[in-house]
Design a protein that fits this description.
Layout (H helix, E strand, L loop, with lengths): L15 H8 L17 H12 L4 H20 L5 E2 L2 H12 L1 H11 L20 E2 L3
Antiparallel strand pairs: 1-2
Protein backbone atom coordinates (compact mmCIF):
# COMPACT_ATOMS: atom_id res chain seq x y z
CA UNK A 1 0.00 0.00 0.00
CA UNK A 2 1.30 3.45 -0.95
CA UNK A 3 0.46 6.51 1.08
CA UNK A 4 0.94 9.97 -0.41
CA UNK A 5 1.03 12.98 1.86
CA UNK A 6 -0.27 16.23 0.44
CA UNK A 7 2.25 19.02 0.94
CA UNK A 8 1.33 22.70 1.05
CA UNK A 9 2.47 24.91 -1.79
CA UNK A 10 5.31 27.07 -0.54
CA UNK A 11 4.99 30.72 -1.56
CA UNK A 12 7.72 32.20 -3.74
CA UNK A 13 8.61 34.78 -1.11
CA UNK A 14 9.25 34.24 2.57
CA UNK A 15 9.72 37.91 3.46
CA UNK A 16 6.68 39.14 5.43
CA UNK A 17 6.41 42.54 3.70
CA UNK A 18 6.12 40.94 0.25
CA UNK A 19 4.14 37.88 1.31
CA UNK A 20 0.71 39.53 1.44
CA UNK A 21 1.20 41.03 -2.00
CA UNK A 22 2.12 37.54 -3.30
CA UNK A 23 -1.29 36.39 -1.99
CA UNK A 24 -3.11 38.89 -4.27
CA UNK A 25 -3.66 36.48 -7.20
CA UNK A 26 -5.25 34.00 -4.78
CA UNK A 27 -7.83 36.49 -3.48
CA UNK A 28 -11.01 35.75 -5.42
CA UNK A 29 -13.83 37.05 -3.22
CA UNK A 30 -14.80 40.69 -2.69
CA UNK A 31 -11.95 41.91 -4.85
CA UNK A 32 -13.32 45.41 -5.43
CA UNK A 33 -14.01 48.10 -2.89
CA UNK A 34 -14.52 51.66 -4.06
CA UNK A 35 -12.87 53.03 -0.91
CA UNK A 36 -9.58 51.16 -1.19
CA UNK A 37 -9.27 50.87 -4.96
CA UNK A 38 -5.73 50.22 -6.07
CA UNK A 39 -4.36 49.30 -2.64
CA UNK A 40 -2.13 46.27 -2.33
CA UNK A 41 -3.23 43.58 0.15
CA UNK A 42 -0.38 44.61 2.46
CA UNK A 43 -1.32 48.29 2.22
CA UNK A 44 -4.94 47.42 2.94
CA UNK A 45 -4.08 45.41 6.06
CA UNK A 46 -1.84 48.18 7.37
CA UNK A 47 -4.60 50.74 6.70
CA UNK A 48 -7.12 48.58 8.56
CA UNK A 49 -4.79 48.29 11.56
CA UNK A 50 -4.38 52.08 11.56
CA UNK A 51 -8.14 52.54 11.27
CA UNK A 52 -8.93 50.32 14.25
CA UNK A 53 -5.97 50.89 16.60
CA UNK A 54 -4.04 53.88 17.86
CA UNK A 55 -0.52 53.38 16.53
CA UNK A 56 1.93 54.84 14.06
CA UNK A 57 2.39 53.31 10.59
CA UNK A 58 5.78 51.78 11.45
CA UNK A 59 4.23 49.92 14.39
CA UNK A 60 1.32 48.66 12.24
CA UNK A 61 3.78 47.38 9.63
CA UNK A 62 5.86 45.56 12.26
CA UNK A 63 2.79 44.03 13.89
CA UNK A 64 1.53 42.86 10.51
CA UNK A 65 4.92 41.39 9.57
CA UNK A 66 5.02 39.40 12.82
CA UNK A 67 1.42 38.27 12.30
CA UNK A 68 2.36 36.96 8.85
CA UNK A 69 5.29 35.05 10.37
CA UNK A 70 2.92 33.52 12.93
CA UNK A 71 0.31 32.58 10.31
CA UNK A 72 2.96 30.98 8.08
CA UNK A 73 4.44 29.13 11.04
CA UNK A 74 1.06 27.82 12.12
CA UNK A 75 0.20 26.65 8.60
CA UNK A 76 3.58 24.97 8.12
CA UNK A 77 3.37 23.26 11.53
CA UNK A 78 -0.25 22.11 11.71
CA UNK A 79 0.39 19.75 14.63
CA UNK A 80 2.05 22.41 16.82
CA UNK A 81 -0.17 24.79 18.78
CA UNK A 82 1.55 28.13 18.51
CA UNK A 83 0.65 31.21 20.49
CA UNK A 84 1.60 34.87 20.20
CA UNK A 85 1.81 37.81 22.54
CA UNK A 86 -0.85 40.46 22.91
CA UNK A 87 0.62 42.91 20.39
CA UNK A 88 1.14 40.45 17.53
CA UNK A 89 -2.32 39.04 18.23
CA UNK A 90 -3.78 42.34 16.99
CA UNK A 91 -2.25 41.65 13.56
CA UNK A 92 -3.26 37.99 13.58
CA UNK A 93 -6.88 38.93 14.22
CA UNK A 94 -6.70 41.55 11.46
CA UNK A 95 -5.69 38.83 8.99
CA UNK A 96 -8.48 36.59 10.27
CA UNK A 97 -11.14 39.30 10.00
CA UNK A 98 -10.29 40.18 6.40
CA UNK A 99 -11.60 36.85 5.14
CA UNK A 100 -10.80 37.28 1.42
CA UNK A 101 -7.13 37.73 2.37
CA UNK A 102 -7.31 34.86 4.86
CA UNK A 103 -8.73 32.51 2.22
CA UNK A 104 -6.09 33.73 -0.25
CA UNK A 105 -3.38 32.77 2.25
CA UNK A 106 -5.01 29.35 2.70
CA UNK A 107 -5.17 28.84 -1.08
CA UNK A 108 -1.53 29.80 -1.51
CA UNK A 109 -0.05 27.99 1.47
CA UNK A 110 -2.45 25.34 2.71
CA UNK A 111 -3.90 23.75 -0.46
CA UNK A 112 -7.06 25.81 0.00
CA UNK A 113 -7.82 24.34 3.42
CA UNK A 114 -8.80 26.67 6.23
CA UNK A 115 -6.40 26.85 9.15
CA UNK A 116 -8.67 27.25 12.18
CA UNK A 117 -7.92 29.78 14.87
CA UNK A 118 -8.64 28.80 18.46
CA UNK A 119 -7.10 31.32 20.89
CA UNK A 120 -5.53 30.13 24.10
CA UNK A 121 -7.10 31.29 27.34
CA UNK A 122 -3.64 31.87 28.82
CA UNK A 123 -1.61 34.31 26.73
CA UNK A 124 2.09 34.47 26.22
CA UNK A 125 3.42 37.59 27.90
CA UNK A 126 6.89 37.77 26.40
CA UNK A 127 5.96 38.66 22.81
CA UNK A 128 7.48 35.46 21.42
CA UNK A 129 5.80 33.15 18.92
CA UNK A 130 6.34 29.67 20.30
CA UNK A 131 4.38 26.68 21.51
CA UNK A 132 2.51 27.39 24.72
CA UNK A 133 3.46 25.05 27.53
CA UNK A 134 1.73 24.59 30.83
Amino acid sequence: MTVTLEQFAAPHTRAPPEFLNAVAPHITELTTNDRDSGMSPRGREVALLLRDHIMVRDMAERILANAVVYVMGSIENLDVHLGVGRLVDIGVHQLILDTPVRWGICRLCNCGRLKHHAPFIRRRDDGACAPVTS
